[in-house]
Amino acid sequence: MQNIIVAGGAGYIGSHMVKMLSSAGFNPVTVDNLSTGHRDSVLYGDFEECDIADSVRMGRIFEEYNPAAVIHFAAFSLVGESVSKPDKYYRNNVSGTLSLLDTMRRHACDRFIFSSTAAVFGNPEYLPIDELHPKTPVNPYGRTKLMTEQALGDYAEAYGLRYVIFRYFNAAGHDESGDLKERHSPETHLLPLVVQAAKGERSHIALYGDDYDTPDGTCVRDYIHVNDLCAAHLAGIKYLENGGEPADFNLGNGNGFSVKEIIDKVRLVSGTDFEVKTEGRRAGDPASLVADSSKARHVLGWQPEYTDIEDIIKTVWKTV
Ligand SMILES: NC(=O)c1ccc[n+]([C@@H]2O[C@H](COP(=O)([O-])OP(=O)(O)OC[C@H]3O[C@@H](n4cnc5c(N)ncnc54)[C@H](O)[C@@H]3O)[C@@H](O)[C@H]2O)c1
Q: How many angstroms is it from 11 CA to the middle of ligand 1?
């Protein structure tokens, strides 16, 4: 059985990846410092509590498991915090990743799958956003991810690193078993916040801006189910195994949903009502972000299963 290191496997997306790798016949080895993740989210494979920047311990982990590939989710990802504490973001997201890549080189592991983000594009110049769209991030979080993408290109050129970059739009949903959850603290993602309001766990939901140039005036985002994201990563592993060249892919559903639509759908699915307070726009929120994922479909043969937002919401509502 091949070992795959899942850096950040105790987090929201990583813990779903661990489960999927295990069902696909791999042994996932989670490496996580539990800074934002949860030990009890790692339900399969091996677990090593370790920071990716600790190159001595990471070296021992590589010796012990001799991994076939590394899937790298371990990063900080709060946009607002990246503005107030950029040092934290550059140190972990850029420097930590370079340290991980150097450990891989020392142990002749050359397959790397990287979690990037739509934030590398900044304000969209056209929609849907394909891989060739200009990359001009508007916050430190996006810049740390873009810098890492650029480093991957240079490492591929100089050291033969073979990588796949996946740029996620909005990850959403839970595994239908109910075993795994989205447990960010603080939670900043729209869907879990609206579900919390529907459950009566928060007094209201704040709607930031209703005067955008979109059909109902609220921001439009592309929601992709977490297991569809993970399925793309599995396809990425096979792609590299078959000798695929370094490549980047945008991952979304290709369908945008507005904040108001999400709120209405949660009301429908939950059969509850809750207060919505309209507040001013937040700085740096583009009106619409929708992915063009046709490259992933064509090159990887990937196809999202959850194309209906109501189905994605149901996976959350029935498991919380
Ligand atoms: N959630 C989304 O919608 C979304 C969208 C775009 C991109 N991403 C990217 O996907 C990845 C995973 O996101 P998530 O929502 O699952 O986040 P998360 O915070 O739930 O998971 C990140 C995990 O990495 C671990 N970690 C962080 N720094 C580490 C380090 N130095 N060493 C070891 N472990 C470390 C944390 O403890 C946590 O378990 C991140 O890289 C994020 O930037 C997420």
A: 6
| Ligand 1 center to 53 CA (angstroms) | 15
- Same domain assignment for residues 46 and 84: yes
Pocket test for ligand 1, best of 15, 20, 35, 251 (most atoms within 8 A of CB): 35
User: What beta strand segments (E) does the chain contain?
Assistant: 3-7, 27-32, 46-49, 69-72, 111-117, 162-168, 170-172, 204-208, 220-225, 247-251, 256-258, 275-279, 288-289
| 96/241 same-domain check | yes
Pocket of ligand 1 (CB under 6 A): 7-8, 10-14, 32-37, 51-53, 73-75, 77, 92, 96, 115, 117, 168, 170-171, 184
Same domain? 202 vs 240: no
Q: If you measure from the C-alpha of residue 211 to the centroid of ligand 1, how many angstroms do you get, rounded to a whole number?
A: 32
If you measure from the C-alpha of residue 215 to the centroid of ligand 1, how many angstroms do you get, rounded to a whole number?
Answer: 32
Sign of CA dihedral 241, 130, 133, 231: negative
Per the structure, how many domains does the chain have?
Answer: 2
Would residue 185 count as lying in a domain?
no
How far apart CA 10 and CA 37 sit, in angstroms, is 5
- Full pLDDT tens readout for the chain, 320 residues: 999 999 999 999 999 999 999 999 999 999 999 999 999 999 999 999 999 999 999 999 999 999 999 999 999 999 999 999 999 999 999 999 999 999 999 999 999 999 999 999 999 999 999 999 999 999 999 999 999 999 999 999 999 999 999 999 999 999 999 999 888 888 889 999 999 999 999 999 999 999 999 999 999 999 999 999 999 999 999 999 999 999 999 999 988 999 999 999 999 999 999 999 999 998 878 999 999 999 999 999 999 999 999 999 999 998 88
Q: Are residues 147 and 9 in the same domain?
A: yes
**Residues 245, 157: one domain?**
yes
Say if residue 167 is in the same domain as residue 198. Answer: no
163 counts as catalytic: no
Q: How far apart are CA 248 and CA 296, in angstroms?
A: 9
- Of 12, 44, 65, 141, the active-site residue reads 141
Residue 104 lies in a domain: yes
